[in-house]
Write a structure and sequence with these properties.
By secondary structure, this protein is an alpha+beta fold. The protein has 2 domains: 197 residues, no CATH class; 178 residues, no CATH class. 56% of the residues lie in helices and 19% in strands. The strands form 2 sheets. It has a 6-stranded mixed beta barrel, surrounded by 4 helices. Strands 11-12 form a two-stranded antiparallel sheet. A hairpin with a 4-residue loop joins strand 2 and strand 3. The protein is elongated and about 100 Å long. The two termini are 26 Å apart. One of its GO terms (biological process) is lipoprotein localization to outer membrane. It comes from Aliivibrio fischeri (strain ATCC 700601 / ES114). Pfam families: FtsX, MacB_PCD. It is a multi-pass membrane protein. Keywords: Cell membrane, Membrane, Transmembrane, Transmembrane helix.
């Protein structure tokens, strides 16, 4: 009986209830979309970081991160290769020879990181070959082909077929260099990455630099959740002169941003929940005080005060279920639509690309987050009914029936 009575009381003043539900629904949808928007930023940064820069795990000589010297090559690399080939956790891996040097054209010169890559293995670990906007992927034949980014091409006034000169210090400390011809021009979602990297065949770079071992092994796993376990497995099974780091260790700033973004989402949710709670208290107080004489009659005919308290709490619970439930359902629909169409941010593309974020964003919300929002909305709604209930049950029946409406 209390359920039926509470439901009728909720809709006694349809306009007031509708306004309150509208505010709750709008708030829930807004909060979830904001959380999805912020999570989408982080997810996009993580995806692009893993794809283009770090993979899931990287192996270097232990001092290479502090001093990327050409002589600091991976120790006993031949013992690492079988571990990667035989592991079912490894999706793909690629070894690279890395050199910091200069790239020069007839127009300009600038510093660059030269990546000597295995052409077939690199295709499996990065989507570089799919992001060539002019020209073609590095050829197995031909003399010294090179891939440059669109940003580098614009600054050095290059096009496909242009000649550039790479110079750097070889393993003996002597300045060396060679002429390369632009085979293709690529563009990624990170302008910072594009500005700093160029790609050549590993054999060409090793020949010029007189270095015949690798500085980096990048590893991509089948399961993101096994990164830490596989990293620890490698640490225990390879030479201690090498360093094994996962993507979070390689990008500590991104790890900090993820933590900050999660904290930000929680703060936004708490602010909304508190504001919503006060709104429900306000609505219920007006509703309860309008029915003071009615509650007085109920108490006079024998209804216990606890049942009156439950009645008012049920009313606030119905408001929470309706507002939170409809809001979450609409949010799921909106997120599904945005995940299909994306949110275009071309007007901010330049700023986003500086942080490695695509100009089309896809919001991301987990089912756990939907559940947290739903539970918190319902819980706060129920708690919001406690104060109005207390205000009415502290009156005695005679006083309540004597009050004027």
């Amino acid at each position: 009986m209390l359920l039926k009575l509470a439901w009728r009381n909720v809709w006694r003043n349809k306009m007031r209830t509708s306004i309150m539900l509208g505010a709750m629904i709008f708030g829930v949808v807004g909060v979830i979309l904001m959380m999805g928007f912020m999570s989408g930023f982080i997810d996009n940064m993580v995806k692009n970081t893993i794809q283009w820069q770090t993979s899931h795990i990287q192996i270097h000589q232990k001092n290479y991160a502090l001093n990327p010297d050409i002589n600091l090559v991976i120790d006993e690399e031949k013992e690492i290769t079988p571990l990667l080939n035989d592991s079912s956790d490894v999706k793909a891996w690629s070894s690279r020879t890395l050199v910091n040097g200069m790239i020069a054209s007839a127009r300009s010169t600038r510093g660059i990181k030269i990546n000597g890559i295995n052409l077939q293995m690199e295709k499996k670990i990065t989507p570089l070959s799919a992001h060539i906007i002019d020209g073609e992927w590095l050829s197995e034949t031909g003399r010294n082909p090179i891939l440059v980014s669109q940003k580098t091409a614009e600054r050095l006034k290059l096009r496909v077929g242009s000649k550039v000169v790479l110079t750097f210090s070889d393993t003996t400390g002597e300045v060396t260099g060679a002429a390369f011809r632009v085979s293709g021009i690529f563009k990624t979602s990170s302008s910072t990455f594009d500005d700093a990297n160029t790609y050549v065949r590993k054999a060409d770079l090793q020949k010029v630099g007189k270095v015949f071992q690798d500085h980096e092994i990048a590893i991509l796993l089948n399961d993101n959740t096994k990164v830490e376990a596989f990293r620890d497995h490698l640490i225990t099974n390879i030479n201690s002169d090498n360093s094994v780091q996962d993507w979070l260790q390689l990008q500590p700033i991104l790890s900090t941003m993820m933590s900050s973004m999660n904290a930000g989402n929680q703060v936004i949710l708490v602010i909304f929940i508190v504001a919503m709670g006060f709104g429900i208290i306000n609505i219920l107080l007006m509703s309860v005080f309008e029915r003071t004489r009615e509650f007085g009659v109920l108490m006079a005919v024998g209804m216990k005060k606890d049942r009156i308290r439950y009645l008012i709490i049920l009313e606030s619970g119905f408001l929470g279920l309706l507002g939170g439930g409809i809001g979450v359902l609409l949010s799921i629909l909106c997120i599904a639509v945005f995940n299909h169409t994306g949110i275009p941010l071309e007007s901010m593309a330049q700023g986003l690309n500086a942080f490695g974020i695509d100009s089309v964003l896809y919001p991301s919300i987990s089912w756990h987050q939907y559940a947290v929002v739903s539970i918190m909305v319902f819980f706060v709604s129920v708690c919001a009914g406690l104060y109005p209930a207390h205000q009415i049950i502290k009156k005695n029946p005679v006083q309540a029936m004597a009050e004027k409406q």
